[in-house]
Amino acid sequence: LKLTHCPTSPDRNSSLVVQSKMADFGTGKRSRDRQEEDMMDDSDEEELTLDQADDMEDVQVELDLVDLEEKDYHSTKQFLLNYLDGKVFLTTDLADLIVTRKEIGTSIRVNGTDDSYGFVSVLNMHHHAGVKAILEIRNHMLQKCADKATRDVLVSLFTDSSKGLGLLLNERMVNIPDALAPPLHQNLFDEIAIAFNTEKAAAAPGTQLYWDIENYIFITTIYLESLPTRVPTGKRNKQQNEESLYRYQKAEDEIYLKHASVRCEWAGRKVPHAMTGVSLTEMRVLAVVNRSKIPVILKELAETYPPPDSATVLSDGLVG
After folding, report:
1. What is the CB neighbour count within 10 angstroms for residue 123?
2. Beta-carbon contacts of residue 126 (< 8 Å; ≥ 6 apart)
3. Cα separation of 73 and 36, whole Å?
4. Are 121 and 36 in contact (CB under 8 A)?
5. Beta 164-172 vs 313-314: how paired, if at all?
6. What's the predicted TM-score (pTM) here?
7. Of 277, 273, 298, nearest to 174 (Cα)?
8. Contact residues for 184 (Cβ-Cβ < 8 A; gap 6+)
9. What does the alpha-carbon distance between residue 180 and residue 64 come to, in Å, rounded to a whole number?
């Protein structure tokens, strides 16, 4: 993935031009009639194979960060299909909640089109506790985190409505450049701050505010690669030990996870790395980050992935 330019925008919408191997995933080109969409089999996901990756050609596209709109409903729903590890749940309800929250949320689009390459948003889990999709996500988190101490913390977070709990939803195509992460997340938390101040100014004293969020909880995917350690000459008959290497599908995950107060993980499927063919174990990770850590995370993101000027940036994004 070659990032050729990343201009800074004075408003919430920003853009960058990337030259990349891109595949036609069909987002933004299918019917937007929800009644017809919801009858589609959610399990019919197309996966990008290594052969398909070889067939892709280099194209240059300009990606815009724009407000989520109702026309992002279908693509948002598609990005959520595997959120619960392939378990079927009410993605229709969840996508509806996401695209109808007008005050926050960002869609990554190709300039001049409705094609969405990802999105980021936050939902207050206490406010939407009665929504079945939110209940399904909560139950999945409790089921996957088997450690009793972790489960007890999660139960407390889910039940103590005096401390807002934000579900951070951050999904995008795997070959989006790392340099997009800082403005994407800076935009998100700038919007939350504005929404909180606006809500607080209009609310009566003592009112529970939607955007008064104490903790953020999310599920993401990282990859665990097992590498044989070097064996000295003359000892090659002995069984080799293995060391593990984490690979992060989204650049910001490493920084968020470093500052997490709660973390649990579970193994997913085995997938080949797009460039090397090395077998990777997909790890699903749940994490909780306190809002006090958000400024630190945003600062580290900006310092780690600064927008390049004329320099070329290469990325060996995972495909699978």
Report:
1. 24
2. 161, 164, 165
3. 13
4. no
5. unpaired
6. 0.77
7. 273
8. 65, 106, 108, 120
9. 10
Rounded Cα gap, residues 255 and 220, in angstroms:
13
**Are the C-beta atoms of 108 and 118 separated by less than 8 Å?**
yes
pLDDT tens, residue order, the chain (320 aa): 333 223 233 344 444 444 333 333 233 323 334 444 444 444 444 443 434 444 555 667 788 899 999 999 999 999 999 999 988 999 999 999 999 998 899 999 988 888 899 999 999 999 999 999 999 999 999 999 989 999 999 999 999 999 999 999 999 998 888 999 999 999 999 999 999 999 999 999 989 999 999 999 999 999 988 665 554 545 544 444 445 688 898 999 999 999 999 999 998 777 766 655 677 888 999 999 999 999 999 999 999 998 765 333 333 333 33
What single string gives the DSSP state of each residue in 34-85? HHHHTTS-TT------HHHHHH--EEEEEEEEEE--GGGHHHHHHHTTTTTT
58-67 and 14-21 as β-strands: parallel, antiparallel, unpaired?
antiparallel
| Structure tokens that stand for 158 in this block | 């889910």
Nearest to 245 by CA among 225, 229, 219: 225
Q: In this structure, what token pair is assigned to residue 57?
A: 């050609």
Return the bridge partners of 284, or none: 221, 266
